[in-house]
């Protein structure tokens, strides 16, 4: 069956819920079902969400459909691999990546599936790590369903592809917020320069502002007007905020996913990168 005529299902895997969107195939795809499946248990890492994923897939008739799974940043670790002008084999790149993750995250990274999103010439590359056991169990769940798992994507990477058009020449600060955590990144001419992930313990906006102030000091841009793009669909942040030399500019969820303005927030993660 041609891919154009296969239904598409977008699925988001979060610590406390699974989000599903079913698009009917055709020249003008349309949404025929959408649902947010709440987890019975949470707080146990990715293990607590897999029963919810399995239940969500077992109850739905999705024959002849391709699935894209977006994985929450809670379940992904990121780092930047510096540019090197030395030509390396694939095996050498893999060893270098493993060494770098072990240096940053310790021995636990030996159990992760590591992927590299190569940057442009002269720029660092963004790398991600996901627990191999998580990926294996996800694939087992899909194998027993009526869906074909087409791709697995980290939320950060998928979303940046959506919003990169907002970034201008020069430096851009970007913050991506999920419930309970956020990622701060610095890009220059659209290329990664710095990335940090942090847990949120109190008020998310205040924690982000404090973290940004530290990062900007490290970047030696104190005194300049700094624009920070914030992607926080769950927060409904809609107006710019100014603090000192920072201007916090909210980025709305993409309108391209054929969702109502209200649903764009609730289903933003599932449609990232469409």
Account of the 3D structure:
The protein contains six helices and 14 strands. It starts with 6 loop residues before the first strand and ends in an 8-residue tail after the last helix. The chain has helices at residues 50-58, 90-105, 132-143, 155-163, 204-218, 261-266, and strands at 7-13, 17-24, 30-38, 65-71, 76-81, 112-117, 125-131, 147-154, 171-178, 181-188, 191-199, 226-231, 241-243, 246-250. The strands form three sheets. It has a six-stranded mixed beta sheet, with helices on one face. Strands 3-2-1-4-8 form a five-stranded mixed beta sheet. Strands 5-7-6 form a three-stranded antiparallel beta sheet. Helix content is 24%, strand content 35%. Helix 1 (50-58) packs parallel to helix 3. It has 274 residues and is an alpha/beta fold. The mean pLDDT is 85.
Keywords:
35% strand; single chain; five-stranded mixed β-sheet; six-stranded mixed β-sheet; 274 residues; 14 strands; 6 helices; alpha/beta
